[in-house]
Amino acid sequence: MKIQFLGANRQVTGSCYFFEVAGLRLLIDCGLYQERPYLERNWDTFPVPPHSIDFVLLTHAHLDHSGLLPRLVQQGFSKRILTTSASAELVPIVLLDSAHIQEEDAVFKRRRHQKEGRKGAHPEIPLYRTKDAEQVFPLLEEVPYEAPLTLNEKLTVIFHDAGHILGSSMLELVVREKREKRRFIFTGDIGQWNKPLIRDPSVFRQADYVIMESTYGDRNHEDPKDIKVMLCDIIKRTREKGGNVVIPTFAIERAQELLFYLNQLEKEKWIPLLLTFLDSPMAVDVTEVFKHHPECLDEEGFELFQSGQEPFRFPGLKLIHSTEESKAINSIKGTSIIMAGSGMCTGGRIKHHLAHNISRPESTILFVGYQAKGTLGRQILDGAPQVRIHGQYHSVRAQIEKINGFSAHADRKALFHWLSFFQTPPKRIFLTHGDEEVSAKLARDIKRKIEIEVILPIYKDTYDLP
Question: pTM for the whole thing?
Fold first, then answer.
């Protein structure tokens, strides 16, 4: 048994693991890199020959877990991609949106470079196109939660709810050899407890090896009860100044949770009726997918949909599809709430809204999700006095705010809560999907509390698992 770490190692995005076990060659996730220092890896030839891989097991639909699947198929993978029902519906939406953004960005970059009379450092072609994304869809195969699936006579996989986003899963792989059992847990991204709409994360009593995310391993989120108060305060202060509230938004879960809270704030008269734009065709499509998957919803979310209520709709909400509608937003006077992707400001329509608002002292840029190192969102959040957007430098004069409680990731306290359910400690824990200093701090604290081996793998590290 052997595992090789091919992404999200001592950094956050690009989740990918190659796992040789029970005579099979598995790929767990195949994610896009979004941090600037690692973008070139997206263009590399895949480290493992794609035609030699027997199965891809996909934890969830986020781009940093699924976004390189078109490249994998381009380079020769043609077998089954196993994932949950909701993820199988979301992945085509996510990959088509990604391909469209890359095609648009390549055209925009080419025009800009021609106008400036220069050539850029990165290719002016898309990483993949719509037709490449479409080659992935016939390979997707739905697997129900909690239903053991036999991959061969020695290996079974079970998809457990991760409570992270709609359709997210943790993978439990059970190997039976010579009357012995070995159990491996790949957490994917662990969600928070007591969030609206979706179910809590699954927990486990026993495992031999755990490959665990660590995104927020050094900090705790705000109390969920404070989220409404903080959001209300930011919106009211910005309205008093006459600016816009611009929210870089992840299309899956974060957009829907924001709409859920804004709906509540308006219904309860905490905020005045404001024009609110969801300027993300993908987020609009994802919002509809929620209705198709009651198996992913918690009791509150299930009852809302069963009662016929629209938890994501309220007066003043405008769902934006076309580029022309998106451009028209920036000519509207007065205060608006503008939600647009991408969530880390690495591409898409949010960059245009930032260009129009980031130098306005009366506007607010509100971050509601993790900003990986090297992304435009992280630069803004870290206090850069000016940032480069579409080749032009803009002074940062807008108010910059952050609400961690919206994150779909477990915080430090919740990660330890998740670990506390193991009745006997695993032989090893591998920490991935976290900035190096964050993962290192969490590793030290786990060792102190549980006294087990915790490893921070480096990109392409390979480990034998006895």
Answer: 0.89
DSSP H helices, 124-273, are 130-134, 224-241, 254-267
pLDDT digits (tens, 9 = 90+) for 222-257: 777 688 999 999 999 999 999 999 999 988 888 999
The dihedrals phi and psi of 19, each to the nearest 5 degrees, come to -130, 115
How far is 321 from 279, CA to CA, in rounded Å?
Answer: 7
Contacts (Cβ under 8 Å, ≥6 apart) of 465: 1, 2, 3, 182, 184, 208, 209, 428
What whole-number distance in Å separates Cα of residue 459 and Cα of residue 457?
A: 7
User: 3-state DSSP call for residue 36?
Assistant: helix
Using 50, 70 and 90 to split pLDDT, how confident is the model at 119?
low
Residue 463: predicted pLDDT:
97
DSSP H stretches of helix in 318-407: 323-329, 350-357, 376-381
Tell me the average pLDDT of the chain.
93
Return the closest-CA partner of residue 207 out of 239, 252, 160.
Answer: 160
Could you give all domains of the chain from N- to C-terminal order, each with its CATH number? Answer: 2-219+408-464 (3.60.15.10), 224-406 (3.40.50.10890)
Sign of CA pseudo-dihedral 27, 29, 32, 33: negative
| Distant-in-sequence, close-in-space partners of 272: CB < 8 Å, separation ≥ 6 | 239
Contacts of 49 (CB under 8 A, 6+ apart): 76
Listed in sequence order, the residues at least 6 apart from 306 whose beta carbon sits closer than 8 Å to its beta carbon are 294
Q: What token pair was written down for 410?
A: 């477990």
Nearest in space to 465 (alpha carbons), one of 182, 153, 179: 182
Cα–Cα distance for residue pair 333/359, rounded to 1 Å: 16
Cα dist from 104 to 318, 361, 389, whole Å: 23, 30, 15
